[in-house]
Structure formats: structure tokens, C-alpha cells
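Researcher: Let's run the pair from yesterday's discussion. Sequence first, then C-alpha cells, for each.
Model: Starting with the first of the pair.
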Amino acid sequence: MKIKKRRIRNVKRYLVEFKEDEELRVGIKIEEKNKEKVVKMGFDSEFIVGEVIVPNSDISQSAYENSEGKCIVRKDLPKEKAERYWEWSWEDYGHNKYTDFKYIPYERYQRDYVPPRALEFMILEDKEENKWVVSHILKNNEKNHNDIKLLINILLSIFDECEIINKNMEQPLKIVKTVNWEILRPGKKTKEILRNIVREKVSKNREGMYIRNIEKLIDNSEDNIAVGTKEFKGYIVFICGKYAILESLMPNNATYILEKNWEDVSKLSKSEVLNYKLHIDRIYHYMNWEEKINKYIKGDENNGKNKK
């Protein structure tokens, strides 16, 4: 079934042609008119059959929710105390420039964090050798309806159209393992690379805070630094002693303290990394961020709300 809309709400009306538990995919054929958008999703411009990705989070709201998760504002609960970072700059009569910042306390509604689904798309060929961007196979049942709806809305938000298909597409002989991390060594060159990433990913008002954060982590990193690509774009991993510290540049996110060594972390999907059972602590970018980070840099084993 072809769908041409910006977004759907009731997925069941688009599945009436499929029997209960019938296998299907959500996809769109790659054509000249949409090749640029396929690349923006995160695929290689060569459209390699078998390449698998989680779409880039910054391409649309639906892709962001899939890759980064979302916060649900709980207006039914009492408000909680939070802090807002604010930074400003000025110049005196001698043209000397100054910068200062502070954290402003305020009350807000509580948030529930919904972890990312990290649903993947891949490139396959049909029997006529047309290339498609398609999801993995799902069965048409109640359990999968939310995932099918999200997959449809991701493609609609990018292409304004998509299809639900049951064509007999053969799985490729080899699945391409995409590279999700670029490894850098600590040093002056890496500092400048990371500063540029910060300037690209965060708002001007929060730029100074993030630069201070990553420079502190660089100075205390004894091993390689990993910069996220593909589905991990906007994440930087610093190895500080026995901890892997994952800094997120995404809005409304946090710094994650991981117990795993780098070899283990690099094999996980982002949804697994951010699963509550896999991280030691989650540190929000509030005034006491540096104080909490210092404890992990010093190797304090008593920290972490998920420690047993």
C-alpha cells in the first residue's frame, strides 16, 4: 500500500490488505528524485546493497525520537526543581572581551524518559534490480503496530511518501557492518576537532559549557577518544581510568557513565548503551556536573545510582 502524507496516527487502517501475522516491510524505492534524501538519512552515496543504518536523528522529529528517545512532560505530577544554563559575553571600552555564565534554578513539570527504539533501515534490491530503502521484516500484529507506525512516520517525514510491501525480496548474502565511531587520540588537534563538533551541534548559548566539559574530559582521558558517526552522531566517548564517559551533545540529554570497556561498548547499539541496566550513572548538565564527574575521574567505586 502506498501512503502519501506527512504523518499517520492510526496504523491499522493502512494494514487492512495484510493478514494477521503476515510478514511485511516499510520502504521506499530509490529514484533520482529522492537520492539526496536517502544520503541525508545516513546511507552511503553509492547505495550499497546490504548497508544497515539507524536514520540520522537531525533529519526529522520522528527520526530523532527513534534515535534519541523522547521526554514526556508529566503535567499530572507535581513540578520539580531544575537548572537552566545561561552564558553571556560583553566588551569594555578597551575592546577587551569577557564571558561569564550561571545556572538559573526554576521549576518545571517532571519528565519521563522514553528510550530510543533504534529501528533500522537497509538497502535491498527487488527482482527487477530496483534498489529500495526498507525496514527489517515485521509481522502484522498488535505487538508490532507501534514500530510499524514509527517506521512509516520516519519515511513520511523525509520523503512525504512510503510503501508497505510484501514483495519477496531476498536477503543479501552479506550484511555490511557500518562504522559508528571515529577513533581519535588525546591532544591539541583532537581538542580543536571536538570544539568544531560542539559548534556544529549545540546552540550558541550552550557552546561554552560543552567546550569546557569536553576539554576537562580530554585532559583526564588516558586512552583513545571515540567520536560518534551514523546513529551515534552527537556522542563522544572518553576513557577515563576504568570508566567510559559518554558525553551527549543532543538537546535535553546527559552525560552517561559506563562500566564497560571500550571494546564492549563499541559493539552495542545506542539503545543498548542507554538502557538503564547498562549504565552506572546519568549526569545532567547542571551546576554540579563537574563535581559528579570528578568522582568518576578519581575512580570512586561508591558512585552511581545503578551500582549494586
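Model: Moving on to the second of the pair.
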Amino acid sequence: MRTKRTRKLPLFFTQVIGSLPRPMMVRDLVDRRDTIPTDRYHGIMDEAVIFAIRLQEQAGLDVISDGEWRRIHYLDEFLHRVGGHEPTRQFSHQGETKSTLVVTGRMERTDPLFVDEAAFLVEHTDRCTKYALPSPFLIAIRKWHADYSTGAYPTMEHYMEHLTELLALEAQALAQVGVDIIQLDDPALTYFCDRKLTGEGATHDDRLQREWDIERQAPEVIAAINQIGGELPVEFQLHCCHSVCKRQSDVAGDYKPILPYLKDARIDRVNLEFAYQGTGKADDLQLLPEGLGVGMGVVDVRGERVQTVEEIETIGAAGAAIVDPGRIALNPDCGFAPDYGEPPSIDEAYEKLCNLAKAASRLRRRYSE
């Protein structure tokens, strides 16, 4: 559902996906958050988040996030707050052995998890605001494991059902504090776009070595998405990226396998990647369900090179040649720093966002004539 504010957004409106790179000061603050007095920690972080908001405003964006600077990770922060997860599973990812959280106990939500942070964002900008939550499918794929989780949730489906209930409550609470757009992040749905992963099981991430059956699983994913956002009184977006870790993607492939399934999704817009090689292609939009808006990823967040305004405009124009420009928003491919320690600098992000806003302005003039 579009709101009064989102209905006033211009043609090719610009938005972030969510996260911005953290300056070293913010990363240091997060590292010390358990040793700093609570009031002092929140006071300093509030000032930092205001800077993140002003940076986006100064760049010329139409839709603003809080940069997700209060989160250690776009997904794991949610898990830390609901409890029941421990960093006990070892896995291999992009050639490194890492530890990851897995669910080992029952989750609990007694109070809203992110409402205070969302309210702070709404209070400190006069522009449209966005707040993102991780999808239940993404969390379930990565965090349920038969060796650790069956005592709390006998199957991954039981875990996903509870996640969906908790995230639906959280989304409703966010809408009540005045957030204009709620986004559900689901790179796991994009795993179905990788033919090598789903066909051959080829992956550099141990967590993805499993059976993939889009005909069976996609409807389950869409049902969970609809349970979370179907009744929200705000714009509800779905973000399907190819994942970012240290400037690399976890999977590759265009969006043709998943777009037809979105016809049953009760969402207003799907945000896709088109700037980075090996992601979406403009002709994917021929399969975009009728009436569904698209957030075109026109800015590469992985490479260090800053695209020119003309390059960004070209990607947006390629989309506008296929779908009505009124259905198109423009955004970076993904969040700049899904994990708080990701390498892009805040200056790199600012320069890229400035060029995004300039390209959007040129496209408005081009398609309003």
C-alpha cells in the first residue's frame, strides 16, 4: 500500500537499500558498546546516525534510512535481540573458515525490537523513510541446522513459521511509528537465480549446500512474505540481492527464474541488482508482474570505481524502455555495508549516492518531456 508521502515521490525516486559504510569511529563505538555506559553509548550513536541521515539528504536522496549504523549486521542484529542463537557452527565461506550463529533455543519477543530506532529516524528527517528487516527464509536457510537446532525447532519449517510471526509483529510496530517504507531483505530467494548452485550444487558457501526446489520452496517463501507485509498500511518492498561480502557476491545469475513467482506476492516494489556484472539484466523486466514497481539497482556497491552519472542513467533508461518509468525507482544494487565492518568508505558511498541523484534528475527531465 502506498501512503500519502510515498505517492508524492517523483519519477525515478532515489532510495538506499539500507546500510551505509561505518566510519572507523562508529565501528569502534559498536565494538565497545558493552563497556560504555548505556546513556553515553546511545547519545554518541544518536549523533552519528543524524550524520548518516544528513549525508543522504545532502546527496539528494528522496528516501532515507538510518544507515543501519546501530546494527552489527543486517540479519544477526535481529537474532541477538530475539535470543536463542549461539555462534557454534563452523562453515567455509569464500575460502575462509568462520563461525556463524545457529538457532539452539526458542526465540522470544516481549517488546518491539527496532521501534525506538525507527522513530528516531522519522523524527530527524522530513523526507520519506525506510526501515529494513531480514526475511524469514533467509534466516532459516542460514541459521537452522539439524545438528544444533532440532531441540528448539524440530524442522526448518517450524523455525521459519516462528520467524514469520515475529517479523510480522515487528513490521506492524514499525508502521505505527511513521516509517513510510518497510523493506524485507531476501537474498536467499536470489539463490534460485544461480543455475550452478541449484543445478550442480556449486558454491563457495557451505551453508548453501542443500536441496533447491523452486517450485516447492518459492510459494512457501511468498506465503511468509505475504504474512509479514500483506496488511501493512505503508509501502512494502522486497529486496533480492546476490549478497555482498568484502566486495564479492555469493551467487550469480539473472532474475528470470524468480520474477514469475512474485505475481502472488503482496508487495509494492521489488528491488533488484543491475549494475554489477553477473546480476540482473534489463530484459529480466519483461517478466516483472503487471503493476509491481521495481527498484533498479543502478549503482555498483562492490567495485571501488565510481560510475559516472551517464553510466547510471544508461542503466535506468534501459529499464524504462521495458516498463513504464512510473514504476521505476533507483537505488544502489545492495546495502553498502550489510556487516558493520565491510570495506567501502563513507566517502565512496557519498560520491556514488550523489551521482545516483544526478542521474535520477536527468532521467526525470528525459521522460517528462
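Researcher: Give me one sentence on the second I can quote.
Model: DSSP finds twelve helices and nine strands in the chain.
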